[in-house]
Amino acid sequence: MALALEQARQAGAAGEVPVGAVVVRDGQVIGRGRNGPVAAHDPTAHAEIVALRDAARTLGNYRLDGCDLYVTLEPCPMCSGAMLHARLRRVVFGAPDPKTGAAGSVLDLFGERRLNHRTLVEGGVLAQACGAQLSDFFSARRQAARETATLLRDDALRTPDSRFAALPDYPWAPRYVSDLPALAGWRMHYLDEGPREAPLTWLCLHGNPAWSFLYRKMIPVFLAQGHRVVAPDLIGFGRSDKPKKESAHSFDWHREVLLEFVERQDLRDVVLVVQDWGGLLGLTLPMVSPERYRGLLVMNTTLGTGDVPLGPGFLAWREMCARQPEFDVGRLFARGNPHLSAAECAAYDAPFPDRGHRAALRAFPPMVPDAWDAGGAAISRQAREFWQTRWSGRSLMAIGARDPVLGLAAMQQLRSWIRGCPDPVVLEDAGHFVPEHGSALARRAVGYFAP
Prior knowledge:
By secondary structure, this protein is an alpha/beta fold. It has helices at 2-13, 37-40, 47-59, 77-86, 127-148, 219-224, 251-265, 277-282, 312-323, 329-336, 342-349, 359-367, 377-389, 408-416, 438-448, and strands spanning 20-25, 28-34, 68-73, 90-95, 120-122, 156-157, 175-177, 188-193, 201-205, 228-232, 242-243, 270-275, 293-299, 394-400, 425-427. Helix 1 packs parallel to helix 5. 43% of the residues are buried. The model has no long low-confidence stretch (mean pLDDT 95).
């Protein structure tokens, strides 16, 4: 049953109802299955059916004489009929199903004496663990539905969900928060995957014009270690609400939202993962609650302290944004990341269906602090002092060498501000968006920051 629970966990992680099953013969597992009707577009793809098919292939026979099936939830009539046709010796289930259970809860097909085969049934094995897995899944679904129903402010736009359908390699369920004081009703999207009690939590902050999709290649590596991953979309980006006016955005406001979000989620044992604006904002967070942070993974970003001139690459980027405010986001990613598919590039453009949704893209380039008294400059100077003198965690820097905006020179300067930061990992083939080359880097980071 523990193996069936693991199959159920995998189903839940994929967005399916968490039910898992295994078929055993002579003490050996010969078939595994987890719920998959949604992904497979198949109403028969219940965990038990999938496991029976797997076992039948293993044996080369649709009859499964002498086999036992373990499943985390009481079988429905369809699955119970399939088990009887397969001539299973025994069925063992975990939690009862008072709505569709056909092993005694609603029906008892296995006790029907007019049928020509008898399959033994045993229920209640690890019932609490099996039931808790289902309860947690549906509780999260209900919470997500409540959050999704958040009313839209009059000065906001919300990208239609259809724009985010079938995103490549991004299977995680959306989560939303709108009741943080600083949000004032704006709905912010975030991912929160993995156990809350994980030994490490990776807080992944994106920049402009990206969103949490940027980290899809790194997230599975972190989750495979049993870690937690939290990745918010800044207001104006991704699946978060989009202010209609550029004036809604400010450095201090976005920073306050992130501070409140970290507090609300009670993030601890955090490795802060930052790139672009994720660093401009994110590098100012740990000094507020340094006890929450254990590590820093920093990629192609900077601190806008206002007393250091911005580089020519960034100034050129700022000028391009001002000159061509309707630039094609997908094409931008394709140009700097030629290995991306058309679907991946389209995913970056998905949050911005028209000009009205692009206020953040226009607001962020001029918002980078470039003078002593610019918004965010003073707090960034405080952050620089923190990283230089008070930071006690581990740091890992990765640089995309082909970045014309925040490349080697900018990152080496930032490294000089981070106490104890070792020699950087230089990715010769990577440009500005280093996480697009992030699978190998994520594996290296897992080993580097291992508790």
